[in-house]
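ERR on first pass: missing label on line 2. Operator R.T. fixed the label and resubmitted. Corrected input:
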Amino acid sequence: MNNIELTEDHKNKLVLYNLQNGIYDSPKFFNLHNRGVEIAVIDNFDKLMSLDNVKVELFPHQIDSAYTVVNKLKLSALLADEVGLGKTIEAGIIIKELLCRALVKKILILVPASLTTQWQQEMKTKFGEDFIRRDEFSGKEFWDRFDKIISSIDTAKQPENAQMIKSIAWDLIIIDEAHKLKNEQTLNFQFVEKIPKKYFLMLTATPMQNNLKELYNMFTLLKPGLLGTYSQFQSRFMVDIRTPANHEELQSLLKEVMIRNRRCDVNIKFPDRIVKNVSFMLSKEEMELYNDLEKFIRAHYSTGVMLVLMILQRVATSSSFAITSTLNKMLYTIENGVSFTELEKQLLGESEDGISDVEIVKDRLSKIKEKAEDKLSKASKIWDVEWLKRLVAQSSKIKTNTKGEELLKYVNTYLKNDKILIFTGFRKTQDYLFKLFSNAGYKCVNFNGSMNWVDKDKAIEDFKESCQILISTEAGGEGRNLQFCHVLINYDLPWNPMKIEQRIGRIHRLKQEHDVLIVNFSSKDTIEEYILELLYVKIKLFHTVIGELDTILSNVVDTPASFEKTILDIVVKSKDKLEIKEKFEKMTLDFEKGKKLYEKVKNFDGKVFENFDLTPLYKYGEGLDGKR
Amino acid sequence: MEKDELKEFVLDYFRINNAKVLESKKQITIQVPKRITDKLSCEPILNITFDKQFAEKNENIDFIAKGSVLLNKIIEATEKRGLTAIKCYKGNEFNGLELNFKVLFESIDKKETLFSFLVDLKAKKIDNELLKQLRNKEFDESNCVNSGLSDIETCYSICIEEIKKLILPEVQKIKEKLRIALEKEKHIIEKFYDGIITDLRKKQEDKMRLWKEKRRNAHISQYVEVRERYRKEADKHEESILELQEKNFEELNNYFQTKQRRLNEIENQYNLKTKLLLYSASLVLIK
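pass 2 clean. output:
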């Protein structure tokens, strides 16, 4: 014991060499160096170093959870807070803490495909950490090359990726939606089990999906042996497959790796959401244009240039100005031989709406590129140029947009003195709305992705201090907190429900002091109306608890991209409006099923854990002397 | 480390590197020379603050605190300079060597401790009382004679022995804590895999027992048809036992591998590594 092995750093020799050879630096650099070392020194875990660097307001239960994980649970833990209490934030604090202490270098976050972008954004905006998504880079060397990686578990388990991942010694593995690893027979389970890891975090709001075997499997993956073998677990802790026994002993074992904050424990109240839907008839000319655009899209669906068609379908319900601009860009590509990729880039830059999701774009581009490039030389054959020209002429004639006028009327009547955040998917529509409201005497400011950060900050500051209306494209939906405003208008409705949730999340936050009013505008007899009526009004997606939507959505579709594709498919593959309605009804049923499944799991999970106290063992700031 | 000390450190770094620092209440604007923007991979104009509330209201301003990206880069940059220096003081003649060490205790947790020693070059003895006295004393750079030193290794060894003495109680405490935790973890793993193997064996034994029973029945029955039925069943059962045995061997192999991997991982996690870094040293001359 007395013989202490001290591994000497290679730098020691350099310092000694300098002394031996009279190589001295200026004392001011010497002092600075010493002060730097003193600042960076890691003395203990009693204080979380990362808290000062988190760019989001933290709640005590989130800090307590992170504190307990790093101090007591030895960094292998299941974070199982109820939905909406910030499991991702807790994981983020832990990541940041471990990075601050240089305890981790290689981090791999495995999440469902639909959440990769969201995780990346949250890590960047809330914790200032740059993670790379697997879909951003190809090649086997990716896993070795980058230290902080986010990937979908389905991509990661593909043989060529899995082989690489299993050959790397990871410092930290994080699994979101960990309940998907409930079955030990699945590839997912076996893959995760074999990844070499130092620290391991699993996140789920519902560790108990159907039965106790699943709970056993998850805990065994996290800490093999904690609950014994399955036969031991059965005899000690199960009355039957759905009822736990030996309550206290089981609780004390679970507490060694699990933290579960419940809403009733943390006493957090979200403001209410009040939803108003405003629908109106388009003018005769507008309706004709809309129908003609739909016909055009149907006629060109087989060409495979999906992204362009999707944008066209989205813009069809926005404004005549955005329609004209999009059509002109399409014409321009034909007349000037601009590549499809360039056209898509331009249209996406223009649109900034729900489908400008990078993930989807990349996915689409990679799939259609070859096909599209092949068709590049024959662009004029893909598009019916004369038809496009007719559409341009048709849309250019429309100078008054009913939707805009209706919006103005609504604001004049109900929101004359309120601060309002208006979302649109298209920059041309944004400009149009800016003019419309400015001419009506409202002080407005625009916010979009083409602005640099100085201008963006100024726009937010202006909105806060002096402007009544902020007109934003989707760029405003990311990362910015606008809780000083409590009215949000969805002028255009994204097709992806998660995008709507992100928009609402800008103002519907824990620190919001008022109930939040969400106003959705939709033109009758258009795709907007179907989406709003069927998905949002009937399913009441606007009223789901924060964080529940992604779980429900993942019960229904694989990714948001496939959800949007389904919508476009419905529109273009249906013979008439009746068939469209029928297909939307069917989609509603799928959603209802997904929601019911979620409710069922939530109820079962809640019932099993009802009498368990799994709140964090320690309270931050009160030291590690006394457990709760 | 107080906030003010942190702020002074950051601002001193920029000032020493010829950056223009403009302080306006809580916001500090820094015009960073190209040489430093490359080093820190930062913008030429930095807007920073040390006030968290102020930063929360101004999203374009970088908040600097322990653990922030910019601070980490600055610290990294300072570590590349000022490894050694000469410090001259006025007073009773003394030639010494100040050696600054960082000891890192790393296992599943991580902890660092700093040690500084002033070694009398003549007496080859540590004189940390004098080091304390010199801490806040002004030193004069211009009078210093730049010379190389011999017998540095001896001073270095003296310090290492002293460090070993000083950290011994801490190391013992940590090691004991880790030993207990490791035993607990190992016990869980051993018990778990032993349990699995027992389960596998039991499953096989149960099947064997059943097979023996069928075989016995095949022999003792007085009816030919019954004997024949039991014989067929026993043959079929024998095949399934062979299958199970094969499966069990494979599983056993897997479990042993996984168990060994887990044990290695855990032993590695709970193994205390003590590392020593001599991060800076100075020649101290008093005339």
